[in-house]
Write a structure and sequence with these properties.
Blueprint: E1 2-4, H1 6-13, H2 19-30, E2 33-34, H3 37-44, H4 51-59, H5 69-82, H6 89-101, E3 105-106, H7 113-118
Parallel strand pairs: 1-2, 1-3
Length: 124
């Protein structure tokens, strides 16, 4: 399984190139793509999202939020912020979901590197 962040979905849908786009293509081809719930929320928040694309996202498996998720997310974000690093709330929730499931994340967003340092996030 490979979780895919909103930034890489955007690049994939815009037909951009890059290592992350190749990973998205492979994950979809092999049925390994999964969505953290905050990513699904971000994707569906686009008022211009075509219905066919929304169907694609809704058909993908989602990673469940495990017991204690909110507490672990708060602690993770506090650790990143304590180092003076950027930790957006949505990014924190995405990172914690992937950490909980031991699933690597495909992303273009460089802010996720902070969660690698402080948490146990693995980037694909």
């Amino acid at each position: 399984m490979i979780a895919i962040d909103t930034s890489s979905w955007g690049a994939y849908l815009a037909d951009h190139s890059g290592a992350d786009v190749e990973k998205v293509e492979l994950a979809l081809e092999h049925g390994h793509a999964v969505l953290p719930p905050p990513v699904l929320c971000e994707l569906l928040s686009n008022p211009k999202l075509p219905a066919s694309t929304a169907k694609l996202f809704l058909a993908l498996p989602q990673l469940d939020l495990l017991d204690g998720f909110w507490e672990r997310s708060g602690v993770l974000r506090a650790k990143v912020l304590a180092r003076g690093l950027r930790a957006r709330l949505a990014d924190t929730l995405i990172a914690q979901t992937c950490i909980d499931h031991h699933v690597p994340l495909v992303t273009r967003d460089p802010d996720f590197r902070h969660f690698v340092r402080v948490g146990k996030l693995e980037l694909a």
